[in-house]
Amino acid sequence: MSSGFPIPVSVLTGFLGAGKTTLLNRLLRDPALADTAVIINEFGEVAIDHLLVEQASDGIIQLSDGCLCCTVRGELVDTLADLVDRLQTGRIARLARVVIETTGLADPAPVLQSIMAHPALVQAFRLDGVITLVDAVNANATLDAHVEAVKQVAVADRIVLTKADLVTDPRDVETLRARLRQINPGAELLEAGDKRTDVAALFDCGLYNPATKSAEVQRWLGEEAAHDHHHGDHDHDDHGHDHDSDHRHDSRVRSYSLVHDGPVPFSAIEMFLDLLRSAHGERLLRMKGVIELLEDPARPLVVHGVQKILHPPARLPSWPDGQRGTRLVLITLDMPEDYVRRLFAAFTNRPSIDTPDRAALENNPLAIAGR
Ligand SMILES: Nc1nc2c(ncn2[C@@H]2O[C@H](COP(=O)(O)OP(=O)(O)OP(=O)(O)O)[C@@H](O)[C@H]2O)c(=O)[nH]1
């Protein structure tokens, strides 16, 4: 494949009517998004019709500013594969970026998985990040009612609050921000109405940016460290209202970091990640981390995963903050944290009491109870 690959893919998600199309229309006016293909993952209306100048017969639409727009007909992977084919056969001159707008209340994980798990697409595309829009007026009710909405927040790299202008009491926005922080401490929290919520703020949020050979590691690790906690089962908001934990899907979401000072053999980390994903894939909403490998401790290995899918690990040329060590950040849904911690300890050779050591685990991975 030529040097333009892998092409960054951003997923724009958010509840029904959260303001995805509105934000996308604003962003597409920025020349920085030239040569971007927008894939709208739904049938029916073309949402950005006022930008259209020409509709190609095959469903891919060339916009006046050079962007491409298509609605998914059939499988998303087919649409992405078709874009690669067009690029390689010269039917598209350039393709710098893909933005996938998902439908309202969808679980974004299958979209991410369809890209990251596809053997051919993974060569052509890399997941840049998930941008989740949250409607400040309706978010609390939606988060209470739909676990998909909580997942959308949990997998985000950027959370954009929309319609804050319609909320009369600013304290309600602050309460919502705290709730979103609780679900996903690592994501940057922005407001749609803020001029700074631009292309630069929303894109290129991968852990590893091949263009600059740098990582966002420092920022999200710092955030996570500051927020490392269990999410309480019994929260109350600023107005003193207790939430019924049965309706609080976000109490099922936890984020925590796993830290190991010192290098870890590649085989150990590989086995740890394999076991975690095979045993708990659906519950592992998001994982990001840097790993100090025994085999090459000077160059951190960056891992990035969504559910069972692990993005191909990238190498950084050096440690971004000078601090070595293995640090993984997990966002999980209904996953026994204790099991994960003990598994990690076993593979990093720090068995806790009653936990079999790594050699025993490699022979019998089920030896850790509590799954
Ligand atoms: N006041 C206000 N209205 C907004 C804001 N963002 C979006 N809207 C309005 O909310 C409505 C829905 O916005 P869309 O951009 O269509 O939302 P969407 O997420 O694309 O909607 P679906 O694709 O149907 O899920 C529109 O009427 C927008 O004008 C905002 O920040 N403030």
Automatic annotation (TrEMBL):
GO terms for cellular component: cytoplasm. GO terms for molecular function: hydrolase activity; nucleotide binding. It comes from the Bacteria. Residues 227-252 are annotated as: Disordered. Keywords: Chaperone, Hydrolase, Nucleotide-binding. Pfam families: cobW, CobW_C. It catalyses: GTP + H2O = GDP + phosphate + H(+). Residues 253-348 form the CobW C-terminal domain. Belongs to the SIMIBI class G3E GTPase family. ZNG1 subfamily. Zinc chaperone that directly transfers zinc cofactor to target proteins, thereby activating them. Zinc is transferred from the CXCC motif in the GTPase domain to the zinc binding site in target proteins in a process requiring GTP hydrolysis. This is GTP-binding protein.
